[in-house]
Specification:
Oligomer: single chain
Largest sheet: 8 strands, parallel, barrel
Distance between the termini: 33 Å
Number of strands: 10
Strand content: 15-25%
Structural class: alpha/beta
Shape: globular
Helix content: 40-55%
Radius of gyration: 18 Å
Number of helices: 13
Order of helices and strands: HEHEHEHEHHEHEHEEHHEHHEH
Amino acid sequence: MMHNIDMAEDALAVRPVMSPRAALIDGYSFEITGKDTAGLQDVSKLLAPATCVSIAFIPNENHDARLAAAATVKELGFHPVPHISARRLGSAAELDRLLALFVSVANVDRLFIVAGDPDVPVGPYEDSLAIIRSGLLSKHGIRKVGIAGYPEGHPKIRDGVLFEVLQEKHALLTAAGLEYDITTQFSFDAEPVIEWIGRLRQSGITAPIRIGVPGPASVKTLLRFATICGVGASTKVMAKYGLSIRKLLNTAGPDALVAEFIRRLDPSKHGSVCLHFYPFGGVGKTAEWIRDFLASHISK
């Protein structure tokens, strides 16, 4: 994985005035891997200046690729938000060096921290809480931290535990004086996401939330990622989103899903919420969709 604090404010001054319906997408963030940097360069002018661009921590890329991606993101005028996968770090020294390099190479001041996929950690960090407790974030001047949210649950963690851990992260980050936001796993269904946000707000967690949204991609690709990530993709949900097994080669975009979020989210109830795009169909297609959506919603 696959986040807004003052991240949106950085870009607001240079964006057109948005209608209330477009407020959800203003301040959006974007996710790439190291191999996507060329594609990002090609479409950089389509994205708003100071957009937060997350850099996924995937197993087939090394630290050099992550550092190069962060440097490219910074050079393009965006905010690099490298992911740190706790269970893939071999030692505290490795984390210390990596943070120092991100700061020196790309002036990074924000990170997204997850436990990671390995069942057994390769080093001392069991989860993102362990990294937060280490004190290394503050040591290297990290001011903002992104953490994960799972509105539809996690395939390996009970819902009750997920909520307890989220509250513990809130307490630790607040005590450490670190700002944070929450980025959700992508979804095809607005209902569980909106219900989950409501529960968070009722519990006293007011941190900004970035709703994970899949960018336009083939139906086959979207369903493949949904299966890998444990995202609900029932026939009913697929039909609501506009997916059909009979049209696997067709491209589906997030139009219906985003429209439902715009219609149903209430800032007075749900707080600060915007979108985080997972470009499964490619950086270019997602950037073009964002441009076209914003253009059609300005001053409407």
